[in-house]
Every structure is written in structure tokens, then in C-alpha cells.
Amino acid sequence: MYVKSIKSAIWSVLLTVFMTFPAMAHFGMVIPSDTMVMQDDNRDITVTLSFSHPMEMAGMELVKPKIFAVSANGKKQDLLGFLNPVKVMDHAAWTVQYAVKRPGTYVFHMEPQPYWEPAEDCFIVHLTKTVVTAFGDDEGWDVELGLKTEIVPITKPFGLYKGNVFQGIVKMDGKPVPYAEVEVEYYNKEKTAHAPTDYMVTQTIKADKNGLFTYATPASGWWGFAALNTADYTIAYDGREKDVEMGAVIWVYFHDWK
Amino acid sequence: MKCIRKILTLGIIFTFTWFGIADAHKVSIFAWVEEDTVHTQSKFSGGKKVKNGKVEVFDTKGELLLKGHTDENGEFSFKVPKITELKIVLDAGMGHKNSWTLTVGEVHEGVSATDASKPVPSDLAENRLLSYHSGDDITNPSSPPDDVTTVLSAKDVEAIVARQLEQKLKPLTRMLADAQESGPTAGDIFGGIGYILGLVGLGVYIRYRKDDRRR
């Protein structure tokens, strides 16, 4: 009896320690109101930028990003000046209205200001992007923006059904990152998804030796893929140099099969 | 027996090839208005340009206004024939067909060029954006430029109303269009026949195989 209670005490301590760790991954978010703008759709799309733990719907402050731009048809356009402040998950976020007028593949991307995370004793910078296509065009979805770190899609990142696999190559300074770690989370917008255990809030996969990762989605909705690496620079905080977690994030929408 | 196998094989091949064609290279046409000219661009999915594709332009009553062919770059342009909704139909041959509809609002807007009054950034407003960002004297950079207000003429108002009306009526138009499209297409019919032949063939095959075994 005595032994049993000690055992259970140890178990509960262990559980508490381990359970708190795997949960809650940070995700930069760039979410458009439409991913495939068709002839009869509203051609003014709304793109929302935020920073959160998307599966648990816990928001964090996103100060005005350093860069927010769209690349389409070989041209890059700065949208930073058009951002309007909003609240997402009760925290500061940003939104922009964008009128899509021509066919093309529009890649929206954001570089936030470094975010100080005391719990991890490091800064977090998530270079986040998403792809919107319009009016029948479907070229250029695999374009590499040339960011410091980036997920280059191998799967066309729109027009996907739930259950489809998503594949991408993790790159840092233009080169594939072998065995890069990729965290995957669902944007639990309606709070309908419940993870049976804390291990299942964020799913983690690793790329192969060519930096290629694969993930099959179990549900329709927005899925975020964050490839995390440590930057080759540090940022001073309280007189000490701190590591910077460089994330390459892509958001992809998966549709219901009807 | 041989004959049945043939039917079965043909049925299966027919079914699969028929469905295959439509999806492998879908065709699309896009049109926009610049001043008094309508520009169109036609592509196959994957980006290949449609060369020498037939383009026909209809009004709301379905009356053919003009026709032409796409050039080497998949483009075909024409002067706005009249201020009306324009349905532009591309026929790239081999059953590759698609259309793009320009609303009265868009046609009018293009002709009267009131586009600059829209405060929303778009893929067309580059110059304005760049000049906006290079200005140092802007006090509140987080709001869209409001210095581009223009005096609206009666024509502009008309165009805006037309556009709004179009927007509101869209669900209705779409419903109508859907209703028109709900009948089976040639693809459905031939595919269906293929299925039936295939299934009949399969049934007969299984039946005869049983007989074969008994023998």
C-alpha cells in the first residue's frame, strides 16, 4: 500500500513535468479570407496577421511587423502601410484589405519584430507566409521568396482536401536543412478540436536528409507548419546575448471532401 | 466469351479516358477593361497559353457581339462594343471551354477609369503604393492614403451603383446559372454509358466464369 502511493506520487510528478513541455508551440499566422478567388467570389480579400498557440487558441501580442508584403506575377508589393490594428484571440493583431484584380498566385509574407519569450529564454522570429490563387491561374505556387528561412512547398498549397499529404522543403539561407524539425498545429478557430493528450496539441515531424517533410491532415481547416531553427545571430536582452528561434512558417487550407 | 471481354475492356477504358480529359488540362479565360478596350488572356492549367483559341463575346441576351482568336500569347483584345454585361467565351477545341463575365460595373468602371478612388491596395496600384511609402512627411502611415479622394461625377455614381447592384444580385445570378448547369453534360452521359457497359461486362464475366469452372 505504502509503495503504491509513493509510486503514484512519483508518477504524478513525472507527468506534471513532462506534460507541461510538449504542449503549446508558437505560430506566426497569416490567414487570408479566401485561398482561391474565383470569378463569382468577393475579390477584396482580408488578410489577418497574428501570433498565437493556434490549437489552444491562446493569443500573444503581435507588434507591427517589420515586413509585410505580397509577391505575385513576379512583382513584390509592400503592404506594411495598409495594416490596420485588430484583436485576434484578445491580443494585438493586424489586418489588411487587398483587392485581387488579376489572375496570379499571391504569396503574402510577414517578418515580425523579434518576440521575447521568457519561458524559453530566447527571442522568436517566425517568417510566415501563405498562398492565395486567383481566376484560374495556378503557376508560381512553388516560388521561393528568398527569405532567411523558408518552407518551399512541394505540394500545391491550395485546393487541397483534408487527408491529403502536405510536403515542403525546409530551407535556411536558400539551402535545404537536413532533418529539420517541423511543428504542425491546427487553427482551432471554432474550438471544436480537442487533443486527447497534451502530446497531441502540436505534432512534430522531421524532414529527411534533403529537408523534405511530409504530413497528412486529419481534418479540414487551416494547418500551420513551422520549421524551427536557431538563427546564426543573437539579440541582447538585459545585457546578455540571447538565442533567436527562427521559424519558417506556412499556412495551408484543407477543404472538406463532399 | 471473347466478345464479352472486349466489351468489358472497352467500357472501362471509355469510362476512364472520358473523365481523364476534362481534368488534366483545364482551360481558363480572364478579362479586364482598360479605358475602352477589353483585354483577355487564356491559359491551360499549369500556365500554357492557349494559341489560336476561338473567343466569342455575348451580351446578356446571348446575342453574339463579336468574335476573334487568341494570339501567340493567349491574348485577344477588342474595343468595348457597348456598355453592357459581357460574357466572353473561350473555346480552345477538344471540349476545352470556359468563360469570363465582365459586369456592367466593370465595363463602365474601365471606360470611365474611376479605379483610383478605391482605398484598398491591389495588385494594380503599385506606383501609388511606392510613392506613398517613399514620402517622409506622412504622419500616420498605418492608415490607407486618404489624399486620393476624387470628385464623383454622375457617371461615376452610376458605375458605383451598378457595381453594388451587381454585387447584391450575384447570389441570384449564380443560382440561376447553377440551375441551368444542373442537367447532365455529354461527359456525364458517355461516362454513364461507359459505367453501365463496364458493370454489365463485369457481371457477365463473373457469371460465365462460374460456368467455365463447372465445366
SS elements, strand count of chain B: 7
CA-CA gap between termini of chain B: 14 Å
Share of residues in helices of chain B: 40-55%
Number of helices of chain A: 1
Which two chains form the greatest contact, residue counts included? Answer: A-B, 32 and 30 residues
Number of domains of chain A: 1
Query: What structural category characterises the helix and strand content of chain A?
Result: mainly beta
H-E string of chain B: HEEEEEEEHHHH
Q: Report the average pLDDT across residues of chain A.
A: 92
Gross morphology of chain B: elongated
Q: Supply the number of helical segments of chain B.
A: 5
Question: Which regions of chain A are unreliable across 5 or more consecutive residues at pLDDT < 50?
Answer: 13-22
Question: Roughly how many Å apart are the termini of chain A?
Answer: 56 Å
Residue share in helices of chain A?
under 10%
Q: How big a fraction of the residues of chain B is strand? A: 15-25%
Question: DSSP strand (E) fraction of chain A?
Answer: over 45%
Rg of chain A, nearest Å = 19 Å
Oligomer: heterodimer
Question: What series of H and E elements makes up the topology of chain A?
Answer: HEEEEEEEEEEEEEEEEEEEEEE
In terms of per-residue confidence, which ranges of chain B show pLDDT below 50 for 5 or more consecutive residues? Answer: 14-23, 114-118, 126-150, 177-183
Characterize the largest beta sheet of chain B: strand count, sense, and whether it forms a barrel: 4 strands, antiparallel
